[in-house]
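[step 3/7] fold_predict: job queued, chain A
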Amino acid sequence: MGIAVLGACAVWTLISATARTGRPEGVLLAVLAVAAGYACGRIGGALVPLGASCLVGCGGLGIALLAPGSVPAPDTLAPLGRSGATAALLALSAGALCCAAWSARRGELRVGLHLAGAGVVVVAAVTGSGAGVAACTAVVLCSLAAARMRRRALGLAGLGLGTALMVAVSLALAQGVLPSGLADTLEGRITRHRLQLWHEALRLAKSDPVLGVGPGRFGELDTSLVATAPPDGKPHSAVLQVAAEQGAIGLFLLAAAYCWVLYVLWRSARSTPVVLSAGAALTAVAVLATVGNALSFTSVTAGVGLLAGMATAEPLAEEPPHDEAAAPERVRDGR
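[step 4/7] structure written:
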C-alpha cells in the first residue's frame, strides 16, 4: 500500500509537470526522502529500536541547531519559512526520544529519556521558535498520556481529526468565510503577507482544479506578492501548494499518504505508547506543514520517514511490557 501511494504521488507529479511544463524535482526529492527514511527506520527499528530512536532524536536536534538552512530568523515568531522547518525537526526529535523512552526496559532510563524529550522544549524556547515550543510540548504530553491509552485506534483517530480540523480552518481562513473576530485573531498570528499567498494559491487552484498550474510554478504565477516581503516561491501551506500546483488529484494523494501513515501505525507491532508518541510527532509536522513550508526541507521529509519506519518496525528483541497494547496479530494480518 505504501509503495502504491508514494508511487502514485511521484507519477502524478510527473504527469502534472509534463502537462504544465512544471518542475517536479522538489516533489520527487521529497517522495524519495520519505521512502528512503521509512526503509532505514524499519531496519533500524527492527535491529536496535532503542538505539535507532535515540540516534534519530539526537540527529534531528543537531540538524535543527547547526544547519543554517533550518535556523529561524530572529524576528520570525510564526511558523513561516525556516522557522517552520526548525519547529518540525524539534518535534520529530522530541517524538523520537519519547519513542526511545517507551522502548527502554529500565524505569530510570525511561524517565531519563522522557526528560531529554522535555529538554527539547527548552531548546526550542532558547532558539526562539514559538511554534517549536508548542509542538514539542504537545508531543511530550501526548507521549505521557499514551501510557494510559489502551485503544490506539482512538488516539490515532483523534490525531487525524486534529489535522483535518487544522486544514479546514486554514482553508476557511483563505476563503474568508470565518467570523470576523476569529479571522482577525488568526490573521494576527498568520501574518497578512502569508494570507495573501493563501488567497493566491486558492485562486490558482480554482483556475485549474484537475491538473493544477504545475509543480514548482507557484512563484512564477503569483501576483499578490509585495516588495516588502521577498517571495521564496512557496505559499507556505502544503495543502494549498499541492492544490494549486497539482490540482485535486495531487491533494487527494497527499491526504492518502497521511492516512497511510496512520494506518500503518495502527497495524504496528510496537507498543501503543511508541505508536502514539510517533503519531503525535508526525501530526505536529503535518500541522506545521499546513501553515508553513516545513515539507520543503529534505531533512524534515527524511525525518518523517525515519520516525514512521521505526514506529512500524517489528523489533527482533522483545518489547518492554506494553505488548498488551500492541496491535493484535489478527489485526496486523488483516483478519
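[step 5/7] annotate
Residues 70-81, 226-230, 327-331 have pLDDT under 50 and may be disordered.
The longest helix spans residues 238-267.
exit 0
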